[in-house]
């Protein structure tokens, strides 16, 4: 039996990002009885039912799966790839209740594009999450569409808050946010790879180097997650004058590592904007 005080939520598409949000929501106390998901294959549907205990519909078994899930939802979270998001919005448009909030987590799909594909007046919110959401440690932005009022934004904040830290931003900043937090986990993983490779170059066993790099990055992340943690202060605390760490940081500065990171983030932001233009053409 569903809880009337909780919204019914449908995840249309349950790839890595939507499942990350789903996992965070369930871990945060959302009842599985309130949740429906749709996927393509029957095998994937069976897996999600087994892992999460939710209702899952497969489009391979029922071509109307997305429409069925959307028709019964207070909140629809669209998590298909950007190239398929507008087609999905058009597919479900006729079955949505006027009060149903549509949340899109697709990169590069603007609010204007979504609103044009949905019924006039449909509340739409754009969110940009990242993969740590599945551990409840994600960052999830929300940007309000034309008809998403303060109460609907608060509802979205409550729903997504179980998956991590929710930040309100104007849509014009979404590409910049994506370049920092959306792509950011990959930067951190890349750093761990590079640290492990450096250990091997210094003569460490590859397996040991991987453990050292992985656990160091993970442990540093825990320290950053502490209340009022400041990355600059934490770095300085480890960097003793004339010590080994100071020499490493000085080398990074000489090689312009901050400039390299900024250039990468700019490239990510520019690519997001270009994809939006491609999909809207």
UniProtKB/TrEMBL annotation:
Keyword Cell inner membrane: no
Alphabetic keyword roster: Amino-acid biosynthesis, Cytoplasm, NADP, Oxidoreductase, Proline biosynthesis
Listed InterPro entries: 6-PGluconate_DH-like_C_sf, NAD(P)-bd_dom_sf, P5C_Rdtase_cat_N, P5CR-like_CS, P5CR_dimer, Pyrroline-COOH_reductase
Domain Pyrroline-5-carboxylate reductase dimerisation: 171-274
Xref: PROSITE patterns: P5CR
SUPFAM superfamilies, alphabetized: 6-phosphogluconate dehydrogenase C-terminal domain-like, NAD(P)-binding Rossmann-fold domains
Pathway as given in its UniProt record: Amino-acid biosynthesis; L-proline biosynthesis; L-proline from L-glutamate 5-semialdehyde: step 1/1
EC numbers, comma separated: 1.5.1.2
Domain Pyrroline-5-carboxylate reductase catalytic N-terminal as annotated: residue spans: 8-107
Annotated GO MF terms: pyrroline-5-carboxylate reductase activity
A Pfam entry, by short name: F420_oxidored
Keyword Translocase: no
Signal peptide segment: none
Localisation: Cytoplasm
UniProt catalytic activity: L-proline + NAD(+) = (S)-1-pyrroline-5-carboxylate + NADH + 2 H(+); L-proline + NADP(+) = (S)-1-pyrroline-5-carboxylate + NADPH + 2 H(+)
Function (record text): Catalyzes the reduction of 1-pyrroline-5-carboxylate (PCA) to L-proline.
Family: Belongs to the pyrroline-5-carboxylate reductase family.
HAMAP family listed in its UniProt record: P5C_reductase
Protein name from the UniProt record: Pyrroline-5-carboxylate reductase
Taxonomic placement: Bacteria, Bacillati, Actinomycetota, Actinomycetes, Micrococcales
């Amino acid at each position: 039996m569903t809880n009337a005080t909780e919204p019914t939520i449908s995840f249309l598409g349950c790839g890595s990002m939507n499942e990350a949000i789903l996992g965070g929501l369930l871990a945060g106390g959302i009842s599985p009885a309130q949740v429906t998901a749709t996927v393509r294959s029957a095998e994937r549907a069976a897996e999600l039912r087994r892992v999460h205990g939710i209702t899952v519909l497969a489009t391979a078994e029922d071509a109307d799966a997305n429409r069925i899930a959307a028709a019964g939802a207070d909140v629809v979270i669209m998590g298909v790839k950007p190239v398929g998001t507008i087609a999905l919005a058009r597919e479900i448009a006729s079955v949505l209740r006027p009060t149903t909030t549509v949340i899109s987590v697709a990169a590069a799909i603007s609010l204007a594009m979504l609103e044009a594909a949905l019924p006039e007046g449909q509340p739409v919110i754009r969110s940009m999450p990242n993969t740590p959401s599945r551990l409840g440690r994600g960052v999830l932005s929300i940007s309000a569409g034309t008809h998403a009022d303060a109460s609907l934004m608060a509802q979205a904040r409550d729903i997504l808050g179980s998956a991590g830290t929710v930040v309100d931003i104007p849509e014009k900043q979404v590409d910049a946010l994506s370049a920092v937090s959306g792509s950011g986990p990959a930067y951190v993983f890349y750093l761990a790879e590079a640290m492990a490779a450096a250990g091997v170059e210094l003569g460490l066993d590859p397996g040991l180097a991987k453990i050292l790099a992985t656990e160091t990055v993970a442990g540093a992340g825990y320290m950053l997650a502490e209340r009022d943690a400041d990355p600059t202060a934490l770095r300085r605390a480890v960097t003793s004058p004339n010590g080994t760490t100071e020499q490493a940081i000085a080398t990074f500065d000489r090689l312009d590592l901050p400039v390299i990171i900024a250039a990468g983030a700019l490239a990510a932001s520019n690519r997001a904007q270009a994809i939006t233009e491609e999909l809207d053409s």
